[in-house]
Design goal:
This protein has one helix at 269-274, and strands at 5-8, 12-17, 23-31, 34-39, 55-58, 64-65, 69-72, 75-78, 88-89, 99-104, 107-113, 126-135, 138-147, 153-155, 158-164, 171-173, 176-180, 182-183, 186-187, 192-193, 204-205, 213-219, 225-229, 234-240, 246-252, 257-263, 283-285, 290-301. It is an all-beta fold and 305 residues long. The protein has a single domain (5-301), classed as Beta-galactosidase, Chain A, domain 5. The strands form seven sheets. It has a nine-stranded antiparallel β-sheet with strand order 10-11-12-13-28-24-23-16-21, with no helix packed on it. A seven-stranded antiparallel β-sheet has the order 5-15-26-25-22-17-20, with no helix packed on it. It is globular, with a radius of gyration of 18 Å.
Length: 305
């Protein structure tokens, strides 16, 4: 049976799935005295399927690596690939069990160590920590990655949350100036000025019937990402640490949701990094070094303009 940990305060009710990659099963906020799903809720039958969770962790890379071929200098490592698109996708940890180090009504801390598994899809040893906690109207996510190997390696991480999409969509504001041109969901070069279809620098809605799967960058770190639900008079703000240089926006047409994914590296960022593209967002960890980042979700009333 899946181990579900529920965190709750006066503003949030969230479900955490340690056995499914430290993912999220649901994220609800108070509205008119009831709990309202803002994160796309997971059916109980899908608690063990990270792809159908409300959100999952991507690590030690985010999104895709072309052909699963990890190139580091003069070395190349062949990673296992997914059958549907032939890439190494979304890291390795989202389908692994994580250890619950501590938890209470509003907080949970989980750990992961790749040395505990013989088949991790990455050629270097690493450990990780995931913390979720509630603080007043904020739902806070903190992720850390540590190099446990005896040599440096490039890495990245991110979150893949799905937010509910209603008849009025939500309205989006994403303060980014650039986007990567994607082919088969992977970046092909340095970022370009943002296109009209994903220019969300001003609050606006998604277009009906238009599929979006875009990688945005050049984020204004002083401004939050905003998702506004006018019919519920509710605004969700996402504030992500500067390490999360990229934001993927993806409209899932099969389920009523939109993914807004903060991630450190670009799609196929490892190959961009090897090409010397500075915006790739890949970081290199020395032995014993840790990289970490926090994403903060807060809600507030929205009355419109």
């Amino acid at each position: 049976m899946t181990d579900l940990h529920t965190l709750q305060n006066a503003h949030w009710q969230v479900g955490i799935l340690p056995q499914t990659g430290a993912g999220i099963a649901f994220g609800r906020v108070r509205y008119s005295g009831n709990w309202l799903d803002l994160l796309r809720p997971t059916a109980e039958a899908d608690y063990e399927n990270s792809s159908n969770n409300s959100s999952f962790i991507m690590m030690p890379w985010a999104n895709r690596i072309r052909d699963g071929l990890l190139k580091i200098g003069h070395q190349s490592y062949q990673l296992e690939i997914t059958k549907d698109d032939g890439t190494a996708r979304h890291g390795d940890v989202r389908k692994r069990p994580w250890h619950v180090a501590e938890s209470d009504e509003t907080h949970i801390r989980m750990t992961f160590d790749s040395r505990d598994f013989e088949d991790v899809n990455f050629p270097f040893y690493f450990s990780a920590e995931a913390i979720y906690h509630l603080e007043a109207d904020a739902f806070i996510w903190t992720l850390s990655l540590t190099n446990e190997d005896d040599q440096p390696f490039p890495a990245g991480f991110g979150y893949h949350p799905y937010f509910v999409r209603t008849a009025q969509m939500p309205l989006l504001e994403i303060p980014t100036e650039q986007e990567f041109v994607l082919t088969d969901a992977m970046a092909t070069g340095a970022p370009q000025p943002i296109s009209d279809v994903v220019d969300f620098r001003q609050l606006r809605g998604l277009e009906d019937g238009v599929d979006i799967n875009h990688l945005l960058t050049g984020r204004d770190m002083t401004k939050p990402i905003r998702l506004v639900y006018p019919q519920w008079h509710t605004e969700l703000q996402m504030q992500a640490d500067p390490i999360f240089k990229q934001v993927v926006v993806y409209t899932d047409m099969h389920t009523p949701s939109v993914a807004v994914e903060p991630q450190t590296n670009a799609n196929d960022g490892f190959n961009l990094y090897e090409q010397g593209i500075a915006e790739a967002g890949v970081f290199v960890l020395q032995p014993g070094e840790t990289a970490s980042g926090t994403v903060r979700l807060t809600t507030q009333p929205y009355e419109g303009s």
